[in-house]
Amino acid sequence: MLTGQKRKFALALMSGSTQTAAAITAGYSEKSARSKGSQLAKDPDIIAFMKKKRGEPGGRPDEEQPKKGTQNVNTPPDVPSVTYSVINPYDDPLEFLKSVMNNLDEDIDTRKDAAKAMLPYIHPKKGEGGKKVAQNAAAKVAASKFSAMAAPKLVVNNEKG
């Protein structure tokens, strides 16, 4: 299973870092980074993740690749294939995060991160806004209960008779 630290290690390794530097970047101890980097570089999950990111065949070593002319058992035949372009201009950051979250080709951890980043903008926390906002809201509620009566309307009759 590919954890967050392993994913960070793989991405750092793919960006050109050494195994030791990639292990430190991923959050492993500097004392054990050299041995941990060597160990992680041989991890089948990390190797499969790096192959998938590079677009090479054999994304998972434990999954059987379908033969030519056969259909993958995991993909139903009536589900259309969705392709996303790499360069897609977005005017709104939330639209970009939604597209990353809904992209089935993306890594599940990346999709989760996009959903977490989008969450506070769609569902704010209850009571979020500070003391002044809460005081003003309470004052409006209290004012509606105990408001003063409206002054009587004065009607002037200017007819001279």
UniProtKB/TrEMBL annotation:
Report the Gene3D superfamilies cross-referenced here. Terminase, small subunit, N-terminal DNA-binding domain, HTH motif
Which residue intervals are annotated with compositional bias (Basic and acidic residues) in the record? 55-67
Instruction: Read off the Pfam families from this record.
Output: Terminase_2
The processes (GO biological process) annotated in the record are:
chromosome organization
Region named Disordered: 27-81
The name this protein carries in UniProt is Phage terminase small subunit
